[in-house]
Amino acid sequence: MPELPEVEVTRRRIAPLLVGRRIRRLETTAPSYFFLTQPARLKRRLKGRTMLRVERIGKYLVAPLDDGGRLVIHLGMTGQLFGAGASSLRLLSATARAALTPEAQQGFRPDAHTHLRFHFDDDGPAVFMRDVRKFGKVLWLAPGEAHPRLERLGVDALRVTGEVLFRATRKRDRAVKNLLLDQTIVSGIGNIYADEALHRAKLRPTRRARRVTRAECEELAAAIRSVLERSIETGGSSIRDYVTPDGSDGGFQEERRVYARKGEPCLTCGTAVRCIVVGQRSTHYCTSCQR
DNA sequence: ACCGCACCCTGAGCGC
DNA sequence: TGCGCTCAGGGTGCGG
Fold this sequence. Notes:
The protein is an alpha+beta fold. It is built from 9 helices and 12 strands. It is 28% helix and 19% strand. Strand 2 and strand 3 form a beta hairpin. The longest helix is centred in the last third of the chain and has 21 residues. The protein binds a DNA duplex through helix 4 and helix 8.
């Protein structure tokens, strides 16, 4: 679901609701693989703590705590982080909403998929984390504790350079799109922005990495940075489940050029956008513009 | 090093 | 209406 822009927009909008507020109590759902730190331990570690800031590392949100520990959250495919004031209109599925009375649709009522519920000493709005598919993750790190998932991440996609891509692509036989999705090389790019960046850089997703020239690496890096920055400006892509922390939609889906536009005309040349499978992911590109 | 696959889940959309 | 199927912004771990 969320890639770098969606995680970054979430970070910016949820930070004011989290930072500096002492956590009185954390409620969770039952233990599941969603919890890399078990619920009971998580509750103990967070009770009475205050988040100092909310940072983003790749697609992870990391909040340093006032005791030196860190709370780490990954949104997975369907993760949503939002304040209690958010409208349930977009947070819940259409079927779930249909079961609600009009009054109940106004504010969000935690449901079975609401895995984290932060309550604060100030009695202000609670903060919820909801994840229907539970592909997201939450964990607590002790002061100074490292975590392999974070340690392995490559350069942040907002700061990727042609040089980084050039070095990573040499002698690699894999499709350039697969390389972009590899978080250990560049972190933050997912299926939407890989396709969008490759279209803007006029590169075919299946091109072997080592066949990408130096100049093309520069163009690709620039395309990655600009498409991500533009998406952040517009609030991210709300194509399926993503909503911002206030429950509203992002706007970047209106600016997509290829992703989920199979059969529709390329906005550059009019050729029908083609959809193939690369690395087990649906992949959209223009057979004419992208070589 | 890299590919394909199974797996972790739930829900929407579609054809029949 | 309902069933069965496919698909989905994520990532890990395995065998080959």
